[in-house]
Amino acid sequence: MFLNCHSYHSLRYGTLSIKELVAQALTLGITELVLTDINTVTGIYEFKKECEDKGIKPIPGVEIRKDGKLLYVAIARKFSGIGEINKVITDHNCDGKELCETAPELKDVFIVYPMRNIPSELKDNEFIGVRADELNFLIRPEYEKYISKMVVLHPITFSTDEEYELHKILRAIDHNTLLSKLTKTEVCRRSEYFISEQHIIKAFERYLQIIENTRNILEQSSFEFDFKKVKNKQYYTKSKESDVKLLRRLAFLGLKKRYGKDHTIAKERVEKELQVIDELNFCAHFLITWDIILYSSSMGFMHVGRGSGANSIVSYCLGITDICPLELDLYFERFLNLNRQVPPDFDIDWSWQHRDTILEYIFNKYGKDHVAFCGTNVEFKYKSIFREVGKVFGLPKEELDDLTSKSAERHDSNSVVKLVEKYGKLLEKFPNQRSMHACGILISEEPITHYTALEMPPKGFPIAQFDMNVAEDIKMEKLDILSQRGLGTIKDTVDLIKKTRGIDIDIWDTRISKDEQKASEYLAIGKTIGCFYIESPAMRGLLKRLKCDNYRILVAASSIIRPGVAQSGMMREYIFRHNNPDKFEYFHPIFEEHLKETYGIMVYQEDVLKIAQYFGGLSLADGDILRRAMSGKGRSIQKLQEVKANFFEKCIEKGHSEVLTTEAYRQIESFAGYSFCKAHSASYAVESYQSLYLKVYYPLEFMVSVINNQGGFYRTEVYIHEAKMSGGTIQAPCVNASEYQTTLRGTDIYLGLMLLEGLEKRVAHGIVENREKDGEYKSLEDFIRRIPVGIETIQILIFIGAFRFTGKPKNELLVEARLLLVNFKPEQRGLMLIEEPVQEFKLPQLKREPFEDAFDEIELIGFPVSCSPFDLLQTKYRGSIFVKDLLQYHKKQVKMLAYLIARKHVPTKKGTMYFGTWIDVNGDYFDTAHFPDSLKNYDFQGGGCYLLLGTVEVDFHFPTITIHKMAKMPMIPDPRYAYDKDKQYDIHRQIKEDVSMTFRKPYPQEHEIGLPRSKTL
């Protein structure tokens, strides 16, 4: 009887999850259920599984609405009907086709119109839905004639009075209005909750035809769907046979290129992998990926194939990845094995500048009907909950800001806030809006609308209405097309070196990407700011602790820095064993033989496979099941138990004691969920070395490219500081020397016009284009003649020093600009400025204070260029100890003056703590730790310089200062407002800092790790 059920996938409307919806139906003994979310099929596959698990017949459909008005309910008679409905929604979302009051011709769909939208004629598959409270209308002649085409319409939207209030809150959020201003037409009826079918039959007892019609729809509708059949594109060519043949030919061509003619081990590995790929029907997946890489290479783009795909020698031979799996002992089974039912997962990075070109190629190559981005459900999060719910209750912006910036226990306890908290808690985990998966592309064999409706976000690429988990469930695996700024930095640096020095660099030369001597020296001391993946304070600290001076250690470092790995205690133990190789014993000779590279610790997922195979006697395929299950990727508890039992059985056969076997399995269990894919780390490490090599030998070109690619971990100011430390002379933007991006001329680095936050992008480009076309600007007057801008833009350019080539002070230029632009009108520009000579004015000499330029720079680009932040302090004191001396002060108290670069929030068992990153007056970086007790009285006060008092702790070559006290040092007042005391400290608040947050659990202490350092008998 329930033809019209909403879940919370009816965004900002329904209040029930799929599980709750089905569970309530089960409680009432309902045996058939139709899910009809508003304009979406997001939940239908979860709905099918959940219903069938509970013995309920699932039927999919969609409620079609336009501008909030219900037009009709579409119910799929069979699965092809869903495809028809998807096409209607997709045409509307992606092509702008209007949703009509009446449904189009749909072959395998039942249509149910509400009584307020009855069409002039009803087709055979069309009906009118009647609610119980509308039955009185049926005595009217205009409705009586339709009784034979009527069905029961009892929508489901919520379940309790509290959820009805939540529904109204969701509707207010959706309409961006106050709860008190919602109208009746904007919310559902008060009756839209489950009642027993007996109640419905009782209400319609005078109209048995309506009951019969409803039952007929339920009986004739079905949801047949094969979850096991792969939905991805089946063949790259026209058949599996030709795919196999092509893949084989390409693999052996690549084998010859990578390994030469007679590499027996490589050839055997290629043969083995090709057999598995063929058996699993994954040839097309490899060839599609190869084709994308081929196009990328033809365009001259850089890419990095990473993730478990780098475990495959076929991937390496095809050029998808550039990591040799033989060199690093990478297991193919980690990537692909006969137990795997889904296509392999390739993660491929491109520069953020080129990714859209790659996407356009994919969409054009395989057709818009077969390609879409995977969707994702953006849930209500802490801040959005309090802001959105607080807004509908009428809280002012100041209170909303307060609610979102404080934890719930610190909120005011007034009645409105209590209501916000009450309903906000109910909204946790609710989907708020649908969005695009960051990188997942779906390429289907059948038109993709057979399975999902599509939406068109502003980006311009259509997205599916389900997420990656649903895609995996229905056997439609995504292809990850990622982007990053690191590759853009490398490519731009290589191009800039060619331009400035005439040197061609082959950045893929392994002498550059692995173990180059000088780059390794930089690596060991953490001199890596700007370099991909190895520039964060945590990573630089790890590199110093390890004295990391080669590629293999960097691969390990790239793995153990991951939050989960560090959380498991592996990072601390690895650092200890790396620095103290004589202070531990291997757990067992097999651990020493196969994990010597990582000191007996299962750092990599491949290590888990090694121990499962060599210690436990499992096949690599079974070992991968073990790894996947423990990391949450395996969904069969029964399968895991079988593998565990097999592990213990095989260990007994090998003669291992029960104590030994139990401890080995405990270690596998502890680390399998945290360990990281070695191939992934290896790919990262190559790119890290590439960027580090460029930083070492071409620091100015490298840092300019980092700035133009909009940096990485830090703000632009830090990278400009690095460029200055590398010998660059930083020049403020200039209309005659600057481009839109930052440029390098000798050792002069001219900051780009793009860094001026108040300057329109259109104007910035126009300044450069006009200069290239008509030559340099001769004067301020010449600039104003040629560039149509107002006084606000001119002021920005004057204050940043963009007209310093005129030799005139800023004050004089500003007066001159106002005189030139007096009575200015755009339509009179030619007449006033070209035909009439400009009068020369004699202006009095206007005096400027020495640091006025610095405050102009802070205001316009966020940091000083013409001086150091230390120069702006009221004190001349610069600290008692400097970074270069810290290693000598272990366990000693020091006092330092430092400029704040970044701080990271980290939870501990005793409360919040921070890790700070700073530079001293010499420009050298150091790190601090701020524990909760210290922060109570000596908290951070925003960006700027601080006086720090703390104790130096040297941990494996890496000094950190534990701060006891600190105070922000006062800067000189803004000299531009010498006569306005109220404004003398306004600009100081614009001094920035980088703040990052982490909500992981505290890392375990050494005694909590539980990894033995002596042999177990």
UniProtKB/TrEMBL annotation:
Enzyme Commission number: 2.7.7.7
Polymerase/histidinol phosphatase N-terminal domain residues: 1-68
Entry keyword annotation includes Lipid metabolism: no
One of the protein's GO biological processes: DNA replication
Keyword annotations of the record: DNA replication, DNA-directed DNA polymerase, Nucleotidyltransferase, Transferase
Gene3D superfamilies assigned to the protein according to its UniProt record, in alphabetical order: 1.10.150.870, Metal-dependent hydrolases
Domain of life: Bacteria
InterPro entries cross-referenced by the UniProt entry: DNA_pol3_alpha_NTPase_dom, DNA_pol3_finger, DnaE2/DnaE/PolC, DNAPol_HHH, PHP_dom, Pol/His_phosphatase_N, Pol/histidinol_Pase-like
Reaction equation(s) it catalyzes: DNA(n) + a 2'-deoxyribonucleoside 5'-triphosphate = DNA(n+1) + diphosphate
Molecular-function GO terms, alphabetical: 3'-5' exonuclease activity; DNA-directed DNA polymerase activity
Keyword Hydrolase: no
Name assigned to this protein: DNA polymerase III subunit alpha
Protein's organism: Chryseobacterium phosphatilyticum
Taxonomic placement: Bacteria, Pseudomonadati, Bacteroidota, Flavobacteriia, Flavobacteriales
